[in-house]
Amino acid sequence: MEARFYIDCIYSVNFRDLAALPDLLNPGDLANLVNQLKCKPMGALEDMRLPLEPEGWYHIYNRGNEGRTIFFSPDQYRYFLTKYAAYMSPYWDTYAYCLLPNHFHLAVQIQSVDTILEHAPNDLKNVNRQFLKELSQRFPEIGIPPSDADLLNFKNLVNLFAAHEHGRYQLAVYAVRERFRHFLLGYAKAVNQQQNRTGSLFQKLFRRRRVESEAYLATLIGYIHRNPLHHGLSSDWMTYPWSSYRSLLSEHATRLKRDKILEWFGGKALFEQTHLEYTENWKSIERFLME
Questions:
Q1: Nearest-CA neighbor of 282 among 216, 201, 226?
Q2: d(CA 240, CA 60)
Q3: Residue 199 burial (10 A CB sphere; 0-12, 13-18, 19+)
Q4: How confident is the model over 148-181, as pLDDT tens digits?
Q5: Rounded CA separation 20/76 (Å)
Q6: What is the pTM assigned to this prediction?
Q7: Strand pairing partners for 60?
Q8: Euclidean distance between CA atoms 136 and 127, whole angstroms
């Protein structure tokens, strides 16, 4: 994939409806395109409620409570990445990441329903009563008693919906959200203990945006990798130690979807070239991206 400038889906645009438009856009075309589409920005509350649907691509973002620090030492960056891989690899594939002192960005694709529900019964013991109530209302044909204690067990629910496609889909959506929430809670608990602090480490709800095209994903990857420069943390974002940029260019084993990403960009050389062009022309697309 030869990539340059792409419109970001911070605006509620369905890229499947834009098939007639060229993928590549010059910087000067972006504002005109948005005006023609009459797009409205997605609000933060909408971001926080967006379901993480199986096989969907997402930009996930969270920051410290009140914008405060979430990484106090290099060991905590390493701990975050290690726990992240252990918790989330069965639930989504990671395409890019960047960890900064008070926030982080991820570009991910959620796994299939079957893959999620293969792992979730071992990772999630119970569901909350509100979710069980929502299931009983959404699927009255199943006849779920909202107060049935046995059905608070996630594995029992998976068995109950074994032949119900839409029910399995909802269970998968719930499992991904809860697994990531548990990961953040676990990291926060460990950091609070290390730093002798109390209270919320992260904002209560993490933000996410649906990625509707490979074109947007290419722009998003560049945006994520460039974040250290954007926030004045490093004059050379390419050597920043807590992003996926160097891992994507290395030969070392990685859980990142390296081969797929480099194929989209047309190889390592074009991947590097596109990132440089993206950085040089950052101001032309800055207002379309989430922070």
A1: 226
A2: 20
A3: exposed
A4: 778 889 999 999 999 999 999 999 999 999 999 9
A5: 46
A6: 0.79
A7: 106, 208
A8: 13
